[in-house]
Amino acid sequence: MSRALTLAELEAEGEALGRRLRPGEVLSFEGDLGAGKTTFIQAVTRGLGVTRPATSPTYALVELYKLSRLDFHHFDFYRFRDPREWIDAGFRESFNGRTVNLIEWPERAAGMLPRADLEIALELHGAGRNAALTSRSVKGQKLLTLLEKRYAFPSSGSSG
Prior knowledge:
Layout: E1 3-5, H1 7-20, E2 26-30, H2 37-48, E3 62-66, E4 71-76, H3 85-88, E5 99-104, E6 118-125, E7 128-135, H4 138-151
Parallel strand pairs: 2-5, 2-6, 4-5
Antiparallel strand pairs: 1-7, 3-4, 6-7
């Protein structure tokens, strides 16, 4: 199930999610160019406590953040042409159960990535966005439940 959001609502949801993230959680962000993936992730990083503006690591592939309560990695696989590039890049060690991982364009590394706890699909909807959140694990369901209770964010449920 999806929900139409203004950009301000999208950012509020992202910040709320960021405040609730714990080490070992993996979130994937899907959507066309301009759908709001980086905007949502910027809000998540603010919720995590990052004071510098987050940028999408399209050319660097990963941006590392070290915070007092956790470390997290922001991946952007837009430039991948083959899912095996994920292995060649040596990113497997980032998925160690201690780091929060936010992944843009996960489909470009399909079959190589660990399953995301929470999938966030965004699409343009007028001046705002449609957002659909799907849990894929117990961790993802806990995040989804927290957001649903606090922000009445409808989910597409759990399938994992």
